[in-house]
Amino acid sequence: MAEGGWRTKRGRKTLAALVFLVLGRGLVASVRLDERVRCEVCGWPDGTVVTLRVAPFGPQVSWRVAGDVLEHLGGGETDSDLLVTFKSVDDAIPLLLGMQGVLVAFAEHRMMVRGDLSVAMSFVRCLHIVEGYLFPDIVTRRILPHPAERRAGHLRAYAQLVHRTAVLEGAAS
Amino acid sequence: MIPGYYEFCNSAKIVSGTRAIEHIGFELASLGSSRPLVLTNRQLRELKVATVVLDALKDTEAEVVGVYDEVPVDSSVAVVNDVARVYRKTGADAIVAVGGGSVLDTAKGATIVLTHGAEDLMEYRGAESLMGRRAVTFIAIPTTAGTGSEVTSAAVIKDTERRVKMGFTSLSLLPDVAILDPRMTVGLPLRLTASTAMDALTHAVESFSCVQANPLSDCYARAAIDLIREYLPKVMADSKDPKTRLAIANAAMLAGAAFSNAMVGIVHAMGHAAGGVAGVPHGDAMSILLPHGMMYNLDVAGERYGELLINLAGAEAYASTPRAQRPTAAIQAVRSMTQALHVQVGLPLTLGGAGVSPEQISDIAIAALDDGAMSMNPKQPTYQELAELLKDAL
User: Fold this and answer.
1) B-contacting residues of A 94-133, CB under 8 Å?
2) Could you tell me how far CA A5 lies from the centroid of its own chain?
3) Using beta carbons and an 8 Å cutoff, which residues of B are at the interface with A?
4) pLDDT at position A158, please?
5) Mean local confidence (pLDDT), B125-139
6) Domains in chain A, please, with CATH?
7) So what's the pLDDT on residue A142?
8) In 3D, which of A44, A85, A84 has the Cα closest to residue A68?
9) Do B128 and A112 touch (CB under 8 A)?
10) Partner of B150 for a Cys bridge, out of B96, B140, B255, B381, CB 3.0 to 4.6 A?
């Protein structure tokens, strides 16, 4: 964490980058774990690139649809078919830390969307499911439109996440 | 009710009144424009509705550089690009859009092309993603009283080749001036008047009860409902009265400003889907689905509906209804309105009556779940809940 912790802008951006990393891999793991996320992603055109980003200079996280799986593209610049941009890091943090729901953040104009709004709606449903795995019930009760319904336990989800992180880091080294 | 955070913008100048269109020369001049391209459709030209605007423009310093009257019922990318081409070719410096939702949305699409040099409008789809000031002066003159498009930051344009409807929302789509003149709507058939007014009523009720509602949008929504309650029955009784026509045009504008800022919810999501899957006219869908949507939201938005009883049914009805019964009384007031319109002009009361078959319910429910309006509803339905709701309306 940057000096001054998350109270500084730099600290909050670092925190956002960290959550994006977890979310990036968490969404990929959810496609494997949960058929609801798989069904949503299968409805997106093959090759679709989805990016979640903080304006104006990032961080960001992207995924690409490859058949019936989702590839985590990391935080690099990429051309996106669906680009969801938080207007500032201060708009991103409450959502990324589970203090605010995606739909409320959208209602409060905290992000802008470029791309097909029906894919954006589907993406939001995926995020809701992923949040169900990443956050405990005390958080999900507040931020999700429905009680979290998990097709696998938290532990299995975290194991998938750690496994994928290890695999990716092994491949990178 | 005060939300933790909200935004509100209604920057369009409203020019409202009998013969308000005669001010168009002044409005263009004050915006620094003198070469308008008039956008309309064939029917409005044949009915001489567009002629009122063209005549008003004759007696000004402005020079009409062209009249584009090829706008179809559903605005499309091809038409938007063609309008932009004509605009450039004629050296126009303003668009005056005279028509209903499709003409106004076509004008909004053309302003995107002209401002951003868009080759493919598809690249600009989305919410709040258009940056920069609009490069085109834009005056909107609605000829229906329902969509409120003259004051909304939204547009829907069809890509007929790719068979998709593209949604755009951006403050840069707001017209500079909206002119409301009863001469534009006085000839509207009563059935269409009723249907579009119910669209406006739905804008007002949903914007008041959705998650983006705020003190400013509430004022607009309440004022719109008051006007509809008072003047819609009068229009039904005397369709030629300019005063009542102007009141309904104002109601549509007020409701448009409310929903442009507070958005709409489940009723519009289902209505868009019913239109896409089964071709149900939008206003008819709103009229049918509004009470059903309110019933669905009752447990989370009941208090807000109760507050609206004073606007939907009047002060006496509000005062004589116990607080706990106001939410259901508000829904009943809407039902009474739709039933009266069913008797008067044949507005359908059920989706079945509007031509929806039971086999189409599933597709409508799926499409409604993907509709952007759903995200602003105070309660998120599951597919099963939505299918049940639609069956109830069948």
Assistant:
1) 103-104, 106-110, 112-118, 120-122, 124
2) 22
3) 3-7, 123-129, 164, 167, 210-212, 263, 369-372, 374-376, 379-380, 382
4) 63
5) 87
6) 5-172 (3.30.1050.10)
7) 78
8) A44
9) yes
10) B140
Q: For A75, left (φ over 0), alpha (ψ -120 to 50), or beta?
A: alpha
Residue with tokens 């499709």: B102
The answer to whether the CB of B207 falls within 8 A of the CB of B305 is no
pLDDT digits (tens, 9 = 90+) for B69-119: 999 888 888 899 999 999 999 999 999 999 999 999 999 999 999 998 877
**CATH says B190-393 is which class?**
mainly alpha
- The encoded tokens of residue B62 equal 């402005």
The pLDDT tens digits of the residues spanning A2-17 come to 555 667 888 888 889 9
Asked if the C-beta of A166 comes within 8 angstroms of chain B's C-beta atoms, the answer is no
pLDDT in tens, B252-276: 999 999 999 999 999 999 999 999 8
**And the tokens for B133?**
């000031």
A107 and B212 in contact by Cβ < 8 A? Answer: yes
Please list the residues that pair with A51 across neighbouring strands. A62, A83
Tokens for A164?
A: 């994928």
pLDDT tops 90 at residue B160: no
At A169, the pLDDT band (50, 70, 90 cuts) reads very low
Q: Which residues of chain A lie closer than 8 angstroms to B210, CB-CB?
A: 107
Segments making up each domain of chain B, as ranges: 13-184, 190-393
* Nearest CA-CA distance, residue B170 and chain A, Å: 10
Q: How far is A15 from chain B (nearest CA, A)?
A: 23
Which chain B residues contact residue A116 at CB under 8 A? 125, 164
> Which pair of tokens denotes residue A43?
């409805």
For residue B342, what is the DSSP state? H
Q: Which residues lie below 8 Å from residue B325, measured CB to CB, with a gap of 6+?
A: none
| Residue % of chain B over a pLDDT of 90 | 85
Token duo for residue B24: 């168009």
Q: What pLDDT is recorded for position A1?
A: 52
User: B13-184 belongs to which CATH class?
Assistant: alpha beta
Pair of tokens at residue B299:
């447990």
